[in-house]
Amino acid sequence: MPLALAGAYDYAVPEGVTLAAGDYVVVPLRDREEIGVVWGRARGGVADARIKPITARLDLPPMPEAHRRFVEWVANYSVSSVGAVLDMALPRSEVLLPPAPVALLEAVAGFTSAKPLTEQRRRALEVLAAQGPMSAADLRRAAQISDGIVKALIEIGAARRIERAPDGTPPGSTPDPDFAPVELSAQQEAAAGLLRQSVREGAYSATLLEGVTGSGKTEVYFEAIADAIRAGKQVLVLVPEIALTVQWIHRFTKRFGAPPAYWRNRMSVGERRVIWRGVAEDRVKVLLGVRSALFLPFPDLGLIVVDEEHDSTYKRTDGVPFHARDMAVARAHLGGFPIVLASATPALETLANVERTPSSTLTRSSATPRQMTRRSPTLMR
Predict the structure, then answer these.
(1) Are 213 and 307 in contact (CB under 8 A)?
(2) Which of 87, 225, 340, 368 has its CA 20 to 30 A from that of 12?
(3) Can you tell me whether residue 323 is helix, strand or coil?
(4) 239-275: per-residue pLDDT in tens?
């Protein structure tokens, strides 16, 4: 459970319920209920009379095995409990529960009025007929009417209220890798070729993409993103602060024909639900996010890019302490896919890791993942 507990708790599986590792469940804990994740078979050693059954299994894709191993790895590395790390990986319960239906208005087919309709009522019905069911607020804006007109349409039987499941299509679902390719310089193409090769190999590698501001680092790693999308993989791009990425989103949209999904600290419950579920269901293909995005349950992650990898805001000191850049390298290592660290002014520890590893070969040893780094050609303006 997402609590700083000493370990996992045993629960009984009710008859007729099938559970597997990674399933999200609701369980009783003292005088309340908590949402937790099935981690495996029970440890045993607890009297049957003391074991409570789970309350329910949530209808969600299970947390991927690589992600569970990542949670354990971060806990071990930061000397924290698995539950404390899981607290960062699980959103609020409102996000995990099914979304509430949306209240809409629709025109009643075959409606006839004994009296001539006013101009505002007629205009409102024309908007409903042309655009289909919509919320009362949207109808007021589209038809330029008051709330009283909406109520009157319902009272005379011209419109009625209905409920529908909300549109859960997340952004970041439809980037086109071939929408608008950018012509690269010779040096940029050399660096991009290295990154494409890493993606196509489908194995762990860590590459430092170094270049002065304006040298085209973003366009270079866009090529790696394009290859990952072609392979059907998910991509996570970490940035220090989402408020500073308006230009990045514009460049991404221009290159791929659609904006990415983005995960930031200040989001509504509805926004978090759409993005979290989109990631868990493998519908979000490209996600731009701050350091907490690293703990989303990607089922098919194929590439991580850490932009401005030197930035100090990647480091968290409260709660479970971690550096998102280093943990991103660990996540790539555990998942067996490439990671790109991009910066005009790389951190000294990153440069030390590069110099420690030969550029021609990447030694796969028992060293920690962050020590296994190789350097791409330096980009020039």
Answers:
(1) no
(2) 87
(3) strand
(4) 998 666 788 989 999 999 999 999 988 888 888 888 9
